[in-house]
Amino acid sequence: MLHWPQWFNTKGDVRHTLMSFGFRLDDGWFDILWRLCDDLEPLVAEFEATDECQFEILQVKEKFGGLRIYVNDADDNIRLFIETAQLASSRTCEVCGQPGTMREGGWIKTLCDQHATAAAAQSSVENQVK
Ligand SMILES: [Zn+2]
Fold first, then answer.
1. How far is the CA of 112 from the centre of ligand 1 (A)?
2. How close are the terminal C-alpha atoms of the chain, in Å?
3. What is the average pLDDT value for the chain, to the nearest integer?
4. Which residues lie at CB < 5 A from ion ligand 1?
5. Domain count along the chain
């Protein structure tokens, strides 16, 4: 995310931004996030110039099997791109980035067949330990 350091306020007050904890998601969605930042770059430049504000991504995390991106402020164009990225995550394996679908097993995650099998095996091992 070095291309967009000013968007990720890692030194901010943690009550304001959770970015200081890093991205709370697996590698499979990194490409989605990267592409989103790339697409947003001209839109954010325009938004910041028009509204005289500083665009910030406050938090990026997985919730209910999908990517969630929280920003401090945005216009409709920016929100549309963020929504599109969130939608793409619901069809992309969170672990490896291959096409995936939403799976449930005491948890909800978007996974490909291979990682769904691995996750199911792991959670059954964890259940045996408990
Ligand atoms: Zn996978």
1. 4
2. 39
3. 85
4. 93, 95-96, 98, 112, 115
5. 1
Q: Strand 108-111 and strand 57-63: pairing?
A: unpaired
pTM: 0.82
DSSP assignment of 18-65, as one string? -GGG--BS-GGGHHHHHHHHHHHHHHHHHHHHHHT----EEEEEEETT
> Which structural domain range is residue 48 located in?
5-129
pLDDT tens, residue by residue, 3-38: 577 787 666 666 666 665 566 667 889 889 889 999
pLDDT tens figures, 60-71 = 888 889 999 999
Local structure of residue 28 (DSSP, 8 states): G
